[in-house]
Amino acid sequence: MDLRLPVPHAYILNPTLNRAMAQQQAVDKRLTIVAGGLTGLFSRPKPEEVDLAYSEFRYEAFWHIVVTVRYAFERNKTYTVPVTGAEVRKVTVLGQELEVAASQPQPQQSSPSGFLQQIGQQIGISNTARTFSLPGVESCIDENRQERYLDAVAGQAVAAGADYLKKDKTELTDFSVLSAEGALVVAPQMTASKVLRSLLATMVKQIQADKMLEEATAIETFDLYFRPVYAFELTWRPKNKTAVAEFDGVTGAMINGKTVHTGSPAPLTPEALFDINVDTVASLFPSTVSNVQIVS
User: How far apart are CA 171 and CA 184, in angstroms?
Assistant: First the structure.
């Protein structure tokens, strides 16, 4: 198998909403946030009853990966070609003389069609198909291209992944920048090798071939994106109720989200996250990797 590896990249998605603006929105909407679906007159919180108990700025990561698996191969095939005339005994195709034979399907004894076929054969009337066999070689290409956006914690699909890629971003060369402003970094559990192994499990397959001409995997893109998230925990003191307003720093959207309180226990490094190279890649494939090419 031939394999093409890209030079990986890491990016920070630039925020359109900063932390101060997000916090102001959370405070302005705090009554609606903590009340949830409560609409009764005596269930409505008062402004002085709702406190901002905790806030955090964090980065969450997701992978963008594009992989193409391609097989080119040949296989021998015998084609059965029907002949319409009962009088035809031989057919010449491309200079090769081929015998015409009658196909004798087994009749279904319990079916009306099987019974009628038997009667027809007894009185000399038959609609038995007449065919000839033509040997050939099929030239085949099986190509599968997949593009995925997967969160770096559990490997789940990121629905807005394609939209994030259209936003402004800054290439990340020094991972310490992520925590420079006190941001928490949610530790990625899915390294590059884990993501690729999971994806290849659905793409690499056994090919029925008499002659394999090409077996290649091209990893076109393998990039890691960090997106900013702001979360604000609000407490409704009389009801002892809490709610979290989470803001997507890239889109500005607010959801009922979560807080994580702690980030990665150890500094992130490109070597640990992008753990695919010429030496380790062979373990990801069921077949032998004969040629590894790294492309920019």
Answer: 19
Domain final position from 138, 154, 172? 138
Q: Which two tokens stand for residue 44?
A: 């409505």
Q: Which amino acid appears at position 113 of this protein?
A: S
Which amino acid belongs to residue 295? V
Shared domain check, 214 and 229: yes
DSSP class per residue in 227-257: EEEEEEEEEEGGGTEEEEEEEETTT--EEE-
Q: Which domain holds residue 108?
A: 76-138
Residue 10 CB-density burial (10 A; 0-12 exposed, 13-18 middle, 19+ buried): buried
Q: What is the pLDDT of residues 117-152, one digit of tens each?
A: 555 445 444 567 899 999 999 999 999 999 999 999
Q: Enter the pTM of the model.
A: 0.81
**Average pLDDT, integer, range 20-38:** 88
Separation between Cα atoms, residue 262 and residue 264, nearest integer Å = 7
Distance spanning both ends of the chain, measured CA to CA:
20
Considering its fold, how many domains does the chain have in total?
A: 2
Which distant-in-sequence residues (6+ apart) come within 8 Å of 53 by Cβ?
233, 234, 235, 242
Domain boundary among 97, 121, 138: 138
224 and 279 assigned to the same domain: yes
Kindly give, in sequence order, each residue whose CB lies less than 8 Å from that of residue 119, ignoring residues fewer than 6 positions away.
none
